[in-house]
């Protein structure tokens, strides 16, 4: 396997004092606080001018949601609690679905309600509300400073152990890189491919086997589709680059499935209540949770196969409703990423998923997508963006201790205190920022994988969530360790994580993976089982060998009865490893052969060699005896006038 060195390794060794400085976020936080103070001043005027009770209550309601009821006399003061509860629900809608208008409606609505309902106000109304506001503001500032000091101290602690831990990680990676690589998919890995193909080959409006909880957050159909597509693309790149049958068809079908209203309609709502626009084109602005994800499916497929079928202007019709379809091309998806990154060059560089919320994880996908397009098309978009992306990532989307935050509000500059596990970042970043990936894995080994009584342990929080269906489970957390460990070549930790998964979760060896878990988690685990050291980085960045791009390929191989464990061409011959669910005779389709040339299909284990002659389009069919594992080799035989005559007779027949 080809591996890639990363630049500036020494300079990236320690966490910089500049990390977490966040000048853009800091300015926007100060701006947000300044706007709040202005609202408070305006809200105080009715009380200072001794205006009517209703106006005083409405004005005080500008301090914070429900504050107007604190000025009420009698029982009505308790209405502040429902207002705060509604604000919490509005925040969830804002966070979960980009509903920017929800907090504004609740805040102003509660102020208006106070003005309409409060009949009499206490003289202490303004002092009470002002005192609560000042206490809240000062409390937030004190907590923020304490958190900042704690993060700076943790940075110093981390920097003391990072050099030794990085040496250990580099030694582990060096051993993994030097070790022989598996030439074919194992039986367990093929189970994952069967799982993905079973779902991909269904009619596109059949959602059997998918989780349908909501279409706004992590359980959305689009994330399940994406993960299945990445799995097939990784298998094709790593093990079967010369199989363009079911592996390619599965990826194509998943993209077609993605374009449906069931998947894309969420943007119609987010665009309306987040951007206040009725134009619901999902490609143009923000929405990296679509462009950065489906774009990766497109880029990986194109890089693996050289098939640019989605370049036509209307090749990707994104349906946001039954009547509203927005046709785009693969290049539109790529150019949307570039335009959005360019639009944010002077602030965050990273750009939002849903309106207002910027998720670094989604932007990691966007970066990988650009690298994938570079691989497929020979461009250099990611290298030109890389330095700015990394600088903004570290300054605006990390804390001073190097911990990556989950999301930040574009408008207010505030981050949501929802942690992104360091254990997932090694895999996510290795394809585009490997120096950061190695650092994160060094920290994981130091902090989350201690050796206790001579055994390495995985530390987990008390409660973890399966983000594919929002149920309590350690599956996703363990999958983070498993995937990153395999990508880093740390197979000891990978095996430990897989053992925990098999031990904790329901396991049925007759089925594909974990029946009690979400499709997203199952697909993630199956994908990660395909990884070896730098496998994801290689799949995203290293162009397909020209010999493979020009040599014979295996078309359809007989799925669901037959799976392809390996398929690789040297430009002339084609080597295959096939796995049949039931031993028997199966028809294989070969493509990209030399027209009218005779080929020999031979097996190193069973049966005898057969010969076929490619037709004028370079295709041929052959029947082969297959069992649980069969090696086949397709080689060109001698070309002669007899072959041409046979081909002519075959065509007439």
Describe what you observe in this structure.
The structure is a single chain. This protein is α+β, with helices and mostly antiparallel strands. The protein contains 22 helices and 16 strands. It has a 5-stranded antiparallel beta sheet with strand order 10-11-16-13-14. A 3-stranded antiparallel beta sheet has the order 9-12-15, with no helix packed on it. A two-stranded antiparallel sheet has the order 1-2. A hairpin with a 4-residue loop joins strand 10 and strand 11 (about 575-580). The longest helix has about 55 residues, at about 125-180. The radius of gyration is 29 Å and the shape is elongated.
Beta-strand level of the residues, as a percent range? 5-15%
Instruction: Note the main sheet.
Output: 5 strands, antiparallel
Uncertain spans, ≥5 residues at pLDDT below 50? 5-10, 640-653
| Cα-to-Cα separation, first versus last residue | 45 Å
Helix/strand structural class: alpha+beta
Total number of β-strand segments? 16
Contiguous helical run count: 22
Strand order of the largest sheet: 10-11-16-13-14
Please estimate the helix content: 40-55%
Mean pLDDT: 90
